[in-house]
Amino acid sequence: MTGILLDGLVQGLQLALLSVGVVFVYGLGGVLNLAHGQVAVSGGLVAALLLQNRWPAVLACTVGILFAGFMALLLDQTLLRQAYARRGEERLLLGIILTLGLSFALDGLFTWRYPNLALTLQLGSPYVRIGGIVVRTGSLAVAGLAVAAFLVLLAFLKGTFLGKAIRCIIQNEVGAWLCGVDVHQVRTLTIVLSGLLAGVAAIAQGFFSYLGPEMGTEFTILALIVAVVGGVRSLTGTFLASLMLGMVNAALSYAVGTYATWIVLLAVAASTLLVRPEGLLAYWP
Amino acid sequence: MNGRRLAIHAAPALAAGGALAAVPFLLGGSPYGLRIVSLMLILAIYAVAFNLLFGHTRQLFLCVGALAGLGAYASVILVRDMRLSPLLATVLATLGTALLGGFLSYVGVRRGLGVLFVGIITVAVSLIFQNLLLGLREYTNGETGISTRGLGFGLGEAPQRAYYVLLGVLVGALSIYQLLLRSRHGLAFRALEDDELNAELSGIDVTRYKVGTATLASALIGLTGALYADVNGFISPSVFALGHVDIPVLIVLLLGGMRTVLGPVVGAGVFTVVDELVRPFGQLTVLTYGILLMVLFLIFREGVVPLAAQLFLRLGRTLPAGLPPEAEREPEGGVGRSKSAPGG
């Protein structure tokens, strides 16, 4: 059972990488990016393609992550720009429908063009023993990747002007604008950042088991559940929700099976929206 | 409302029905062709219901597939396990679906959920429904699905009859839609589309109109789902998936024209042709759906029917009177909604 919970914890870390992007983009512009999982998968698939061409693993993964960031930039400059040009409910609606369309387009493209492509990353030995617990090296790699990514992210958010600007916009867009923050530029930068993190999450999935071309929707839905439960304006909430959801997911999948787990997770998300639309765990700033 | 006015209001529905009634003769009775056009009619009925939900009351129900699936599975399981007659099972399944749709709408209105949150919750409902179907294997057979031969009205074996039954449902749905729009409901709809708060302030019971509309639309979707089970001869979770029903319905409505009577029918026709063209390429259909959805929503939000109507009006007016084209440029009743100022 410890092993399962540990796996869940690591999965939660990976989930956090994925969800932060959704939360950022929603918090900054009010656009719910339903193609976020597909952006992640695009990075993973590029890495897999490069690995097939005998590139060194580290280089292939780096290029994959950068590609996910590039996809996010593309998304921002083409589709999201249209949504940002509008206000209020119209922006929400345009954002959700356009990214829904994009998610289907990318899903179709990936499964049509690369039906058998998969990213798997293996380390020297599959298991190591730490303090009496047998741990998968893949899990360790994911945990390391996620923690490193978060440290960089935190340093960026707390330490740099741009980071402060991002937090500022999430809290109050007009206020940030009045303080001289270039909202458009920061928004674009944030979306690229969310794409890069999604790319890291996709590489992490490769360490876990494998990443296939059809997994974008699953990623999006998981990130969406986390964002809803954690609160779309709270980074700490997102982080906590990810870890909890990861562990609940692992424990429930083991106890009652995949279908029931999905039903529970989705029901929790839906009831959160009804009971506390700002997010169950949104107490923390 | 006297008989003559009734006839005038139902005219577009009857005209469309008349034109569609000739289709089987054009096809020469080929079973494959009949199957395709029957599925087209089903898509059109879904789109009529979705038009009421999304077009007129701004409720983004992304669970059309789940509602249809509920109607289908409920009717089939009631006949198979409870030994009910197909007619009774269909009625019960329709009522059940109507209740679920009305409940979802009631929750959304009461909690004051915006279009985005209603979208998320109904997507969650769709996914929960999918997982329920997969999980309750002893009733639903999981992803293998259920063969519905001998559990319905036998429409699967009589493609021509199936087509006309579905056509009857479509014409009925269109007539109800037309009557609704011409009654007080139509006025209420127009107020709701513009501003819900203002509608409420001017004495329109927003909850009643939204929940009532959702209940009616869901009943229509449930009934059509039950008929689909019979016509198709087979149901499985994947035929009611989001990408299989909801996305096509959204495309059909955008393509044909939201808030129009004939939009769903025209949209379903065009969509079916496109779908048949890309079907041989497998996963390419998903890619096409995605691109269609983006393009339509971005640059062709009005749809074919309002465009054709404008063109028709312009032709009709310019020929005899010779008016300059600018004179007819008045927007058609709230079709291209652009109340939000560009900027930001």
How would you explain this protein's 3D organization?
The complex is a heterodimer of chains A (285) and B (344). Chain A has helices at 2-29, 36-52, 57-84, 88-113, 137-159, 161-171, 173-178, 183-208, 216-230, 235-256, 258-275, and strands spanning 127-130, 133-136. Chain A is mostly helical. Chain A has a two-stranded antiparallel sheet. Chain B has 344 residues and is mainly alpha-helical. In chain B, 73% of the residues lie in helices and 1% in strands. Chain B contains 16 helices and 2 strands. Chain B has a two-stranded antiparallel ribbon. The longest helix of chain B has 27 residues, at 206-232. Chain B is globular and about 55 Å long. Residues 321-344 of chain B have low confidence and may be disordered. At the A-B interface, helix 3, helix 4, helix 9 and helix 11 of A face helix 7, helix 13 and helix 15 of B.
Write a short abstract of this structure.
Chain A has 285 residues and is mainly alpha-helical. Chain A is built from 11 helices and 2 strands. In chain B, helix 6 runs antiparallel to helix 12.
List keywords for this structure.
heterodimer; A: 285 residues; mainly alpha; two-stranded antiparallel sheet; 77% helix; globular; B: 344 residues; two-stranded antiparallel ribbon; 16 helices; 73% helix; disordered C terminus
Number of strands of chain A: 2
Mean pLDDT across all residues of chain A, rounded? 87
What radius of gyration of chain A results from the CA coordinates?
18 Å
- Taking the alpha carbons of the first and last residues of chain B, their distance comes to 48 Å
Strand order of the largest sheet of chain B: 1-2
Strand tally of chain B: 2
Number of helices of chain A: 11
* Helix-strand pattern of chain A: HHHHEEHHHHHHH
Using CB atoms under 8 Å apart, which protein chain pair has the greatest interface? Answer: A-B, 45 and 45 residues
Q: What gross morphology of chain A would you assign?
A: globular
